[in-house]
Amino acid sequence: MTGPIERTRRAASATVDPVFPALKARVIARTGHNYYEDKDDLLFDRLRKRMRVRGLADCAAYLTLLDGAAGREEWAALEAEITIGETFFFRYAEQFTALRGTILPELIEARGETRRLRIWSAGCSTGAEPYSIAILVHDLLGEALADWSVTILGTDLSAAALATARAGEFGPWALRTLDTEERARWFRRTPARPGLPHGGYALRPAFRRMVRFERQNLLSLIDGSDRTPASFDLILCRNVLIYFSPEHVTRIVRALGERLNPRGWLLIGHAEPNPTFSQWLQPVALPGTVAYRPLDTPTIEPPPVLIPAILDAAPIPLAPPTVPLDVPDIAVAPPKALPPEPVPIPAAPATDHPLSPGDLLAEIRVMADAGETARAWRRLREEIDGYATDPALRYYEGLLALDLGREREAERALRGALFLERGFIMAHFQLGLLLSRGGRRSEAVRALDNALRLAQGLPPETILPEGDGVSAARLAESARRVLAGITVSDA
Question: Against a cut of 0.70, is the pTM above it?
């Protein structure tokens, strides 16, 4: 078990190795990842992982390897290791609401004559973002898609991430914000294989064929080596700019703006807007987010934003339609959720922990989003008893167990989260999905009904805690759909 002493020993290693500063400087210079400028411990931990793989003892030996004949191959592996590939389908619901309700409809209208759309997902990681866009475009164009030329390009620094993206197969972790029907409409189940011991979800060909992938470092936009096509109608560069220095960020954003077609759109991460961008781009305030357009774009009244983001669309005919369930709206007063089955939670040890619950959760998510769900689950299990009263950590223990196919442990963890916080809407919902898959219909209805009624007691646009951007309205609609499916199967 990893304890405070082991963590302290690991953290000290970065300062003990005399060659680490030189290696760190090389890594940042090559990748532009200034994100690691003040994160020696995190960078050293990732370097050490590659050193172990290569059987090397220290940074000097590793630097020699990078400079040698095998350097190109090892640089690719290291770049994949240090790039935090946090991604899942329809990440940041507010931006996908804007994409579905405003950005893509306007682009489709503006390009109606040429019937041509060019979209770029810069820093696409394992492909969830460009594939999510493909699903939206498919939804919005419907049968007219056959008459359009739609190109969606995904680029990333990590060759390993791009290989996963091209395969188009994902574990449950990347689909964690989707309900059962959405998974059935857009994916097919795949059998167990190495890396996915409990099977996965393969994106259906109708969406995969719309996307192609290329390897690219965004620094190429400012050093003259970029070979990306010159113009796009929509560019997404979300949560990538955090890696770069402020000077590089401004130059990259300017270069992205120069690659926008007239009346095009640029979306960046929620935490990445900067007032200086308005020198080259026109910021546009949309509900819950900010987008950017070329400065000469005429100001127009955007069409009304649809909520929820994707669930009101006409269904893709890949699964039979469901029957709507008439559920009373009790938004006037907060509903009384049925209490979950009590689960004993061990008392927290008296010793202090060096990580806050939020810091530990961030560490766990980085591992899981990089595809290391087994490692993340083990790490959380090692520490969970020290944070026994934190419902969010229990909830993520359940999600990780689900990804690994450990249903019993997942159920216990989700019920543990609800024991600590009875109004935890996402825990009710995930527990309901788990019980439904296991054929325990009456228990599933109880959990899903709890989630539905609690969500209806909130303003529709409320973003749910630990929901990865899911709004109360979208969660309520998802719960209704799953409940309807259970009711139909029982009829």
Answer: no
